[in-house]
Amino acid sequence: MMTTLKHTLLLSLALIVEMAQASVFEPNDLEQAYAYLNQIRAKAGLTEFSRNSLLEMAASNHANYLANNVMIGHYENQGIFGFTGVYPKDRTMNAGYRSALVSENVSSGNVNSIDSIEKLMGAIYHRFGFLDLVHNEVGIGIAQISLHSPNSVYTYNMGNTEYHVLCEEPAFSGVGHYYFNVCEPNINIDATAFEKAKEKAIGNNPNIVVWPVNNDDDVPPAFFEEIPDPLPDYAVSGNPISIQFNPLVFTTVNITRFELYVEPDNSQVHPTRLLSQKTDPNRKISNLQYALFPLERLEWNTDYRVEVEYITNLGEETLIWHFKTRDLEVPLFTVQGENEEILISPDMFTFVVYVPPTVTFPKIGRINYIFPSKTAVETLFEDGNTLWINLLGEIEQEIRFNFSGERQFVVKIADKSISEESVEENIDICEPANFLANVLYLPTLYYTHSPDTKAIAFWVNLEHIREDLFQVTHFGFKKNAAEPCETAATLSPNLDLHIPLVPEELTILFPNLHDKSGEMVLQHKGYLQFQITADSFSPMTPSLADKTDKSVQNQAGSNQYNLYLILTLISILGIITIVVYFGRT
Description:
alpha+beta; disordered C terminus
């Protein structure tokens, strides 16, 4: 039995390594970056960025410079390998982009573009860069730090299309007002044309932009550090809440009240710090931008309410909106590192440990663990205070975790009836599938090997890799899944994946899907890849499956093989999780 488990675990680890490398070398990570960044802007009500090849060249050059020289930041040193310009505007000019009015965001150590953009959105100065009202085009560059690391450097260069066009035209030489220091090389620009271009970009955006947006239900609860640091006296705080006002509408703004409340008990979050043009230690915030920092990190999976009162040139107004912090969807245990004992059941493959920050120890820091033989343990950070633990072992086994400051806790695999007493029951609601940033997310997927066996519940991410083919990238076991419902996806014994309610975004990508039933069926093609079946498409139009592979039939094999695959997947669930980098941006 243990020999079989050992071989299964080795196979699982091999699959994990293969999947991690695929995400690093995934050719569509750049496409995903453009798509996800524009989803962020659309979510905030802003116009989407157009893609500029010159800005992309400059961004790629700087990303390679940082990765090759193991650096981070916005500046380059002449004489060092890969140098293309000291400042961002020098590098964009070197790539052929004429406007000098560009901005740049950089992150390092991220496993993919979504991770990079999400971390930058938690850093207030970089957030305002992505949510800029004037810039309307972007170029993105990605460079892997090393062949032995899954992490990459991401560079985002942003500019304005009309500014670049003005700089391409002959210099202004007539009578009237003109601007200089707008272009590289420097030429005089007609002031009227410049202001029209600026007003055109700003005018296409909302009067007020807030973040997190109203009813956002996946907000990371913490902010750590940023360069430069808006909170130099805090190593960790809550994710900032920001608001910015459109200068075409508002000329003066005075915030009189900016407060955050916990929704369940209507309690106000204290302490907080309001960052404005007057209070910003780095002088990067404009007179129309504000950010409220909770000085303690927010709670996981909690509803919050924001209330802002302000006086402008248009009068006095109050704005109220709501958001919810991220639900990790696995059991979460809170410890202080005082040798606490966490009891888990043998089937609790994945769980999370949260260690609240203190002044002395703002982060978990380095961690090591001691475990007996016949046990498999893997740890990965969600953020600096939150640790995913994937575990396979036997009853009565103990795993001791030690981390910075001589802090420690113990995980004990207990009898199921005992361990369930230590976990608060939290049954998930039944959610339909959704499609975001090229990823099909199934919140709940039920698999039943035979009618007389109990259904196993998973959550699954399937990335659209080409045409009608999807690849499983992340998945996990759901302990507290809701009862099967009409919107839940199912996996049949022969590994046909049935999605009863197809997300609207996916029907746009595949317009020939059946639109009456809203259903879709995907067939397993091996290597955790699923292909949309011909039956899912309208009979009036040949399906992509017909065009790409008419000869392929059900390759899932016998039920015995399928059961082996599912058992392999279940074992993977014990050690796989999402890798999230929590370093500096």
